[in-house]
Amino acid sequence: MQKRSSKPKSKNLKFDIENKTKFWSGVVRNGWWIKFSVYSDHYILLMIVSRYTGQTILRYYCDESEAVAFINFVTTCNAQDILQSA
Questions:
Q1: 3-state SS, residue 53
Q2: Which of 26, 29, 80, 85 has the fewest Cβ atoms within 10 Å of its own Cβ atom?
Q3: CA pair distance 29, 73, nearest whole angstrom
Q4: Residue 17 lies in a domain
């Protein structure tokens, strides 16, 4: 019996993710740097960073309206304070 390597699987997975993911340039709103990407046209990954405190928030959504609601919530908050409810 030979041991099978997982390298081909990981290379295929990496290639699949790279081809199905769309990235956009980050934007700054009210002291928050917001960057998002979409995988397979419906999985949304948000990365939000405070320009002042460095607080980083990562969120994953399947529903676009929930992602937009969270972005709107965060941008209304003071970027100089640490968010406890995020």
A1: coil
A2: 85
A3: 12
A4: no
pLDDT at residue 11, rounded to an integer = 83
Query: Does residue 9 lie in a domain region?
Result: no
84 within a domain of the structure (yes/no): no
Q: Is 38 in contact with 22 (CB distance < 8 Å)?
A: yes
Sequence-distant (≥ 6) Cβ neighbours of residue 54 within 8 angstroms: none
- The partner residues of 37 in beta bridges, in order of sequence, read 23, 45
Task: Give the contacts of 37 (CB within 8 A, at least 6 positions apart).
Answer: 21, 22, 23, 24, 44, 45
pLDDT in tens, the chain (86 residues): 555 655 677 788 888 888 899 988 999 999 999 999 999 888 999 999 999 999 999 999 999 999 999 999 999 999 998 888 66
